[in-house]
Structures are given as structure tokens and as C-alpha cells.
Description:
A: MutS, DNA mismatch repair protein, Chain A, domain 3, Rossmann fold, 6-stranded mixed sheet, 10 strands, B: alpha/beta, 2 domains, 5-stranded mixed sheet
Amino acid sequence: MQLKNALTQIPGLRYMVDRLNLKSGPGVRVLMATPFMVKTDEVKEQLQQLELTVNALLDKASKPVLAKVATKLSLVRDIAGTVKNIQKKLTLNDIELFELKSSALVAHEIRGLLKSIGFLQRRIPDLHEVIALLDPENSGVPSFYINNAFDPRLDPLRKQLAKVELSLEKMESDAKEVDKDSLYSQSDALRAEITAIEDGVRQNLSERLRGYHWEINAAIVALAGIDILIAKGNQAIADKLTKPEIVATSTSYIGLFNPQIKELLEKENRHFQPIDIEIHNGTCLITGANMAGKTVLLKTLALSQALCQFGFFVPATAAKIQPVDQILFSFADGEAGTAGLSSYAVEMVRLNHIVHQAAFGHKLLVLIDELARTTNPTEGRAIVGAVAKHLDNQNLKVLITTHYGGLKVQCRKLRVKGFREDIGDAKITPNNIGDFIDYSLVEDDGVNVPHEALRIAKILGVDEEIVKQAEKLLDK
Amino acid sequence: MTFVKDALSYKSLSIVGLDKNTGKTECLNYILGKVEGTGKRIALTSIGIDGESRDTVTHTAKPEIKIHPGMIFISAEKHYLQRRITSEILDISSIRTSLGKLVVARALSTDKVLLSGPPDTQSLKALIGSMDNFGVDITIIDGALSRLSPASPAVTEGMVLTTGAAHSANMPELVRKTKYVVDLINLPQVEDALANELDSIQMGIYAVDSEGTLHNLNVQSVFMLQKAKSVVFSHGNRLFVAGAATGNLFEFLRMQKNIANIELIVKDFTKIFATPEVFYAFQKKGGKVRVVNKTKLVTVCINPTSPQGYRMDSDRLKEAMQAALQMPVYDVKRMK
């Protein structure tokens, strides 16, 4: 899976990617094609690179250099098409040669800047031979044309043409047609000769550049990679993300937060309560009142796992993450009704897919939000029990949220604490209800699920009669 | 040096013809010729495609735009690769046209070129702004007053208008038609804060209330206004039309009770597509029009000759124009 596909699937990933301040066209292209890394070493290596970048961005000496690099990166052109044309043995035109020359010069400059702080410069191949080919005068400026230095014959011919053109211009309009015609044909002949030489130069340049197509391409890819690292690094610093430790067993987070929701809350001067959680192999059932943040928790876990395996830092104060082969999830607010299926049917189809993937022995992170919520509680409870038991194996990390209590299945159970005990006389409204909930998780036996649906309904202003009736029915 | 000194005092200047063959290109070449040796750095581009060696409409010989060494010109990829001039590429702009990316180049010889420019007003503005990077003193736009071009030359600081026998062979009518366009160019601008806000809006009709807040009327076009009559003035008497302001719109507004207080805001004068009769009738009843982008009219140049061979008396035309427009007018062909 590539990042561009994951964007539409992993909740909140687009928010993170859209806010990356990439400077170059190739940076965007390469980022979107980033693979979901499953090999431990690969993930470690990428995160290591990012850590070095973050350190460099925080370092007084290298920070201004990297800022300069970022400005230069905006001049990097996407010349993938030109590189292909070189490989295809086509003759490049002036526009392609210009783009090649200016990109090679930028790559060279960035390489020099990075060398001064001893960072990442080895990634960029040395392009001085390419630059020498395209800049025979060694001017160092990116502008391009087939100038006289490319071929000694050009200078006298161009001077001669200018002379002829000047005489043509000066000639009185009543001059003899014969004289004019002679000048015109001289001009045409000179132009033809110059064009032929220019074409020869372009052909020769294109042939000689063919020997460097690998280096040119590698340089562009390297610059894209550096662009991505700097953007990710700046985001990690701004969003207070952390480098996860890559482990082979349990995944765990201290102070896990959802960057998007955190930002929303902070805009309203409210606070996102970070969560600590450990995820072991096997199934874990999570219970908790409505509005207790169960869905957000699952989504944040999916996001964080994806960020890690796409080489980003994660939103937490500390994290240990075991890479998985796939992240599979079923969310309650998923798209019901597609293909004419009911929300229950959609969920069952998705569930089946998860079970099939698990059967292959893949390492999976499975996140199921309110399993079987849309059917009757008797059968729903049975389904939750069955799925929890079935998926409780060593290759899988399974989190299932549910409102069903009294589940007999033997597995780990967590509960969101829910309403704070210390509310006192505070007035709870639909707008501030979140401030009165403790979102932290506790180990639980899962026998008594929280019964706070009616209390919350009341706070949300549901008709009193209905709440009273419901309470009456409960008492029976 | 006639009007050239004044014209070159602007950061950006457009040369627009009231019609084809009104002497726009000659006027441009005249200005370019006068710049030679002043040390001013010129950049040249156009709206759409220009510089064809023969006029594609009337098949008359047409003077081409002559570029001198040191001048910067902008042309689309396809045109650039067809050039005869020796020139070096300075930059490839990210602006795309149907003929490829725009190439910014510096002329190294004297020759004629095909110019092409940004396809819309926003990118035209961006391009003019980017010319500072190349040390350009003045950017000249070979403009067009055409309904077909979505890029408006009115975003330049200054404008030179060319008019002539090709537009109308009847002198009083030519003067009247020219005066109308000059009146439109001279329409007053809205306040800066509002102008900035309105400039980014590409379509729709909005009411502007007394606080300067915009209310989208959700009327797709002026044709739908009649039906939306009840909401049109619910936020006051100021209306902003992002697209074309047609004759129908002016007639509709003229017939409203509050006409004396109505203020219509358009993007720039090229968005007004009403006949002079309809426009002046609107103004006569007290209706006001203001623009978001205003350009300063530097001068009007006349070409008394039409491609069909009709020739007016240059002096008489000049006198009549000056009397009507209350500004100096030049016949480019006679100012060598």
C-alpha cells in the first residue's frame, strides 16, 4: 500500500499529510508513493533519519542552513519526463535542457549547504559533470541557451547575421527589391546554418547526458527525500510528535493524542486528555459510556500505527510500536448503505474480511468499533463473544469496543473511566460535557458495563417524558 | 517624447486595441523603440496569442512585435521552441496554458517573436508580480478587449488604448464608441479592503451590506435575478457581480425603485457588456458603477486607416477625439 491510497482509508492521515510543508514538486510525488513499511529494520532506519533531521532542525548551527535548503528546494523541478526522454535516446529541446541545468545547479547548491553541516549530503550524487556539460562557460547561473561556448562556429555566424539584419533594417523602404532580396537570402542562409549547428549541439548534449541519467534521477529522488524529511521534522516539532521505539512485542503509548481533535479543542480553549494504553497480542474488549472517546481512541491508534509505518513520528509523549502487516478496522460511522447493504450487512462483510486476513497468519492491528451494535443485544452479545474468542491469537492485536456487558469470553478487558466523581454542582451542558469525562483506561472485569446512556441523554436535552419512561422500564 | 515617458512610469502597462487593426502593435513597437537606450528593463507578454505575421481575421499584413537585446519576453513552450530570435531561458513559470508552460526568456538578438501569455487574470497578476525577480522595471502586456479572453488587461497599473477607422468608418460614431470605453476605464474603484476581498471571487452575485460584509445571493447568473428579486436588495443597495455585467442586468437595475441608491460593483471595466445607450441610461437615473481592479488610462492612440483602405483625416479625427475625451490623443504613424 502507498501513502496516497492510505490517505482515503486511515482516519486523520490526510490531516497530517496536508499540513506537511513540502517545497518541491518531486517531494509531493515521492511522498505520495511512500510504501507502508512492514520490515522492522526499514521502519527503524526511516525513523532514525527523521530523528537526525529533527535534531538538526533544533540545532542552532544547522537550523538556518536547513531553512536555506528548504528555500532552494522550491526551485527543484520535476524533470522525470526529461530523464525518461534521455533514456529513450531522444534529443532534448532548450526547455528540457534548461530544466535539467537549473535542477542540477540546485542539487549542487543544496549538496554544498548540507555538506557544511555534515548532514544527508551523501544522498545527493555529485552532478558537477552534468553541470559542466550544460554550462560550458562555468557561469553558475541557471539560464540556458545554445551559447557560443558550445561551438566555436556560432559566434562569427551570429555576428554576421546581426550585421545583415541591421542592414535590412536601415535600408530605405524604396531601396531596390534586388538588394533587399539578396540580404533576405543571406539572412535565411545564415539562420539555416546556425540552426543546424544548434541542433547538432542539442543532439550531442543529449547523447552525453545519457551517461548520467541514473545520477540525475537519483539526485531528484534524494532532493525529494530531503524535502520530505525536513517537512516531517518541522511537523514533528510543531505538533510535539515523538519517535516511537520499534519493538517486537506489545505496542504501548503514553500520552497518546489525536492531533486533529486536539487542535479543534484548543481553538475553543479546551484540552485534549492524552491516553495511556498498552496493546498486547490477542483480543482486548473496551467498554465505556457513550461520548467516552472510544471511537476517537481506535481512530488515533490506527493513525498512529500508520504514521509510524509511513516513517512519521507519532502523536504521544512516548511510544513503543510493533510494526504490523496491515491495519484493519471497522468503524461505527463507516459508510453504511453502499452497494445497497444495510449497516449491519456492511459490518459483517468487513468482519469477514478481517477474519480471512487473520487466517493467513498475517500480523494485524484490528480495530473494531462497537461490534454488532445495530442488531438485537442478545445476538449482538453472542457475536462479540465469538469474534473476540476467534481473533484472540498471538499474531493479532485486536481492540473491540462494545456497550454489551456480561461477556463471558476470556480475554483482556479495558474500561474508559467515564464521568468524573468530582463534578459537584457544576452545570453540565451538551457543549461542556466533554470536560466532565475522564477518558483514561482502566483494567476491568467487563461484567458491569457503565450505564450512563440515560444520564447523557438527559444532559443532551432529550424529552423528559422519554427519559422518565425509560427509567421506569429499567426499574422493572 | 510624447506620452511614452508617462507610460513608462508605471510598473505594468497594457496596450489594448478597441478592435483589430486599430494600430495596437504599431503603438507597442513605437513604445519599445523609444525605450531603447533609456536603460529601462522591459518585460513583454500578451493575453492569449499574438504576434502572428498575418492577421488571421482580415488577412492583412500586420506589423510584428520586435524585440531588442536585453528585453525579457514571455511565451508558451510551443511558441518558444518555434522562435527565430536568439534568446536565453531564464525561468519556466508554473503557469500552464494550452500551448504548454510559460517560458521567461531574455532576447540576445533583435527579431520578431510570437508572444503568448497567462490564460487568466489571476495568473496574469502573478506573472507581473514575479517580474521583479528579473529586475524588470516595467511589464508591458499586449492586451485585447475581447469577451473570449478570461484574462483581463485591466490588472495593469496603466493602459494605452488604440482606436481607429477599423472600429468604425463613421467619425462621430468612432468618437462616441471610443468615449464610451474611456468612460468605462475611468470608472471609480471600490475601497481597498473590499477590493482585496472581491478580487478572489470568481463567480456569483453578492450583496455587500453597510458593514462591507458579503452575502452570496446564490443566483447563478443575472438571468435569474428577476426571479430572485425579493432577496437582491435585502442587504442594502450594493451588488457585486463577479462575472459579466450584461445589458439585461443594467436594465433590470434601472427599473428598480431604489435605482438612485444602487451601486453595482464589477471586477473591472472589461466585464461590462452593455451597449452605451443602456449603460448611460442606468447612470442617468442615478445608478453608480465601481470596479475592483482599476487601471489608469495613459493615452489614446488613433489609427485613421482601416484595413479595407478607408482613410480618415488624421488631424480632424485627433481634434474630435481630444474634444470628446478631454485628453491628448496621438496618431502613432505620424510620430516618428
